[in-house]
Design a protein that fits this description.
Blueprint: E1 3-7, H1 12-24, E2 29-34, E3 54-58, H2 64-73, E4 78-81, H3 88-93, H4 95-117, E5 127-133, H5 158-177, E6 181-186, E7 188-190, H6 199-208, E8 213-216, E9 222-227, H7 228-241, E10 247-250, E11 255-257, H8 258-272, E12 283-286, H9 301-307, H10 315-327, H11 330-334, H12 339-349
Parallel strand pairs: 1-2, 1-4, 2-3, 4-5, 5-6, 6-10, 7-9, 8-12
Antiparallel strand pairs: 9-11
Length: 354
């Protein structure tokens, strides 16, 4: 039986990936190693409770003893490393947390894998998949071509810099020790289970409450969006078929400005909840954040030609599915009103977030 260690599996993408693996690889044993920070929720995986092929372990990737215990107690074949602090705004407010989790934590996992698997790791089919981001490549101009995997790193925020550091550690372990490491760079994900600090669920929550939907600057910043299930398909393709030492871009090829995205989102919300009435009047522009990258876009030529993967869900369909999921899970949107996250919103947006 293949055993896969998924770090950060109670978070947004991690939870979706575990559900995806349970459907697509039902014989695999899934180990979810997650600290359960504010963005991790064990309820995301409640349907796996009692599954004999699923194990949850609460732990911190930056805790060396906790990481080594997992490797010593379980015969791990594959590592899929999601666990990270990911929100750019939070990284500007508290960069040290991002360095600890994203850099130190990744280093601990790599070292534990190296010591446990030994020099025969590749021959025995072991693999370590480092999940990265398009943000490590920095900002593109409006007319620049999408970036390829070989583009130089140029991170702008403490978040993207910490992810770049983690990536270079992973590459170094591959080159120095022969650890079978793979990297993926993804564009902005959206879909079920996403914590409402990110743009789409946050805007939904604000609009449902009739509160302002804040957008940085003019709203002209451009992002590429990938529906999370498409991303999960791509990750499995890389995990099973990718070449160790290589990196692969996984994007949605759905570039759109933040302002236009929010307009589409609000239109879809009203289509599913016509009782709300028009919501565009809630859009509010706030001062831009420091170092705000203008545009991200990924070239998918490599993953298409080598692994045959490409995104399947259009932005329109993905938004329809996403709005429907949040409307059917009102408890998720309630979380935005509580505790630590409400305090963060007040610091970040002042009275605009309400």
């Amino acid at each position: 039986m293949t055993t896969v260690l998924v770090t950060g599996g109670a978070g947004f993408i991690g939870a979706n990936f575990l559900h995806f693996l349970r459907r697509e690889r039902p014989r695999w044993h899934l180990i979810n190693f997650d600290l359960l920070t504010y963005a991790g929720n064990p309820e995301n995986l409640a349907d796996l409770a009692g599954d004999p092929h699923y194990t949850f372990i609460r732990g911190d990737v930056a805790d060396w003893e906790a990481v080594t215990r997992v490797f010593s107690r379980h015969d791990i074949d594959l590592v899929v490393h999601f666990a990270a602090e990911t929100h750019v705004d939070r990284s500007i407010l508290d960069p040290a947390v991002f360095v600890r989790t994203n850099v130190v934590g990744t280093g601990h996992l790599l070292e534990a894998a190296r010591r446990t698997w030994g020099p025969e790791a590749r021959a025995r089919g072991r693999r370590f998949l480092q999940i990265s981001t398009d943000e490590v490549f920095g900002s593109l101009g409006s007319h620049d071509p999408p970036v390829r995997e070989t583009a130089p790193y140029a991170p702008s925020s403490p978040y993207s810099a910490s992810k770049a550091g983690a990536d270079w550690l992973a590459r170094a372990y591959g080159r120095t020790y022969g650890l079978p490491v793979l990297l993926t760079h993804c564009s902005n994900n959206y879909g079920p289970y996403q914590f409402p600090e990110k743009l789409i669920p946050f805007a939904l929550c604000q609009a449902l409450e009739g509160k302002p939907v804040p957008i940085y600057g003019t709203g002209g910043n451009i992002r590429d969006w990938i529906y999370v299930e498409d991303h999960c398909r791509g990750l499995l393709a890389v995990l099973e078929g990718g070449e160790p030492g290589e990196s692969y871009n996984l994007g949605g090829e759905q570039e759109i400005s933040n302002l236009e995205l929010v307009r589409l989102l609000l239109a879809e919300l009203v289509a599913q909840r016509p009782d709300l009435g028009p919501r565009d009047h809630l859009i509010t522009f706030v001062p831009d954040r420091p170092g705000h990258d203008w545009r991200y876009a990924l070239d998918l030529t490599k993953v298409r030609t080598t692994l045959g993967w490409q995104p399947q869900v259009s932005l329109k369909e993905g938004l329809r599915r996403t709005v429907a999921w949040y409307l059917s899970h009102p408890g998720w949107l309630e979380r935005v009103r509580t505790g630590e996250y409400r305090h963060f919103l007040q610091r970040q947006y002042g009275g605009v977030a309400g």
